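ok so I'm stuck.
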Amino acid sequence: MKRSLPARLARWAVTALLGIIVASILAVGAFRWLPVPVTSFMVNERLAAKEPLQQRHQWVPWERISRHAGVAVIAAEDQKFLVHDGFDFAQIEKAMADAGRGKRLRGASTISQQVAKNLFLWPGQTYFRKGLEAWFTVWIEFLWPKRRILEVYLNSAQFGRGIWGVEAASRAYFGKDAARLNRQEAALLAAVLPSPNRYRVVNSGPWVRERQAWILRQMQALGGTALLNGL
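replied:
not stuck anymore, here's the structure
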């Protein structure tokens, strides 16, 4: 018996949805091992530029990244990174409570969530996009070890206009490889992460320097590079 048009459309829709789900999981699985040559946020920056933009990005493996850089971004962005499963629910609840009291809405995304967003999604705060972010975060945490998540984050985070990844940032700002970053330099890079198009590494203002000092204290409190010994 021939199916009606609505039934065929429904079947096609279900098939397409299942295909998208499988493709997204396969993409996450593939990037467990493959270098990430470009992210959706890099593409978005280039498309949004009103004039020609030279982007700098060079993938480097974990072994060629200073451990100070890993500790700095954990101290600055996600101090529970090594123990949570992708979401820091305490920070999410705190952010929602602050917003409910009329305070400025602040981010509560973990490093894992930021990796999901940077690689596969686009800027914005819609519920649909946040739902997709949660979907990719779950699979990233399930399929990747923590070291890989941190490696991809350090290679895909933005540290300034057109500057993506810790290797490009280290070369642009300090004239050295990412493997040679010291504590102070790593903390300074991490200090601009909340808004890399607003805050500067070079000729940075008082807020960035104060945040750098705070990050350095947090790095010491977390145990320094010994924090990453288990990765």
